[in-house]
Specification:
The complex is a heterodimer of chains A (111) and B (112). Chain A is built from no helices and eleven strands. Chain A is mainly β and 111 residues long. The chains are: A mainly beta (111), B mainly beta (112).
């Protein structure tokens, strides 16, 4: 199918690590993306990974890609209250060229 | 927001009236998109443009039209607004098709 699946909600304590998971549809998708949406704002490109990579690290963010299982994860180290937002994963399946977003995971960070 | 401005930010209108939303970019990006965001549906593509006067339909284009007369402006028109078009509308731009989109701040549209 064409659904990119994410769990809807994650709650963590400030300072803990957060892991947001995503299952995508097409193992040949070239790029996989993570977008962040803060309340009342548009989506902001957070990071992305090219399909020939297994991992990408950018400061507190670590993206892991498991092509065999079509699983993408975003780990946020030392989660802060400013990380509270909705996180969307997205892919571009090679057979359609369409950009498909997941439903988004709401991350709640408790002080 | 990467040089993207959406106007208006909020609009309340009545069923049956025409509505036009504007997206203006200063990045000179080739591709521009209109999405709507609704609870339970995530983001859905309405229309997109790949150049001046070049547009194409997305997955939820019924009831919407678009125009792009200049590189920097992309207009979304609801010819006769319906309550089902109450939503948050986002414009996005990119240099390559569907890659690394930059989004505007959104327009909250309420159709009563």
């Amino acid at each position: 199918g064409e659904d990119v699946e994410q769990s809807l909600f994650l709650s963590v304590r400030e300072g803990d690590s957060s892991v947001i998971n995503c299952t995508y549809t097409d193992s040949s998708s070239t790029y996989l993306y993570w977008y962040k949406q803060e309340p009342g704002a548009g989506l902001q490109l957070l990071t992305y990974i090219f399909s020939n990579m297994d991992m990408k690290q950018d400061q507190r963010l670590t993206v892991l890609l498991n092509k065999k299982d079509k699983h993408l994860s975003l780990r946020i180290a030392d989660t802060q209250t400013g990380d509270s937002a909705i996180y969307f994963c997205a892919e571009i399946p090679s057979n359609t060229g369409k950009l498909i977003f997941g439903q988004g995971t709401t991350l709640q960070v408790k002080p | 927001d990467a040089g993207i401005t959406q106007s208006p930010r909020h609009k309340v209108t009545e069923t049956g009236t025409p509505v036009t939303l504007r997206c203006h970019q200063t990045e000179n990006h080739r591709y521009m998109y209109w999405y709507r965001q609704d609870p339970g549906h995530g983001l859905r593509l309405i229309h997109y443009s790949y150049g001046v006067k070049d547009t194409d339909k997305g997955e939820v284009s019924d009831g919407y039209s678009v125009s792009r007369s200049k590189t920097e402006d992309f207009l979304l028109t609801l010819e006769s607004a319906t309550s089902s078009q109450t939503s948050v509308y986002f414009c996005a731009i990119s240099g390559d098709f569907n890659e690394k989109l930059f989004f505007g701040s959104g327009t909250q549209l309420s159709v009563l």
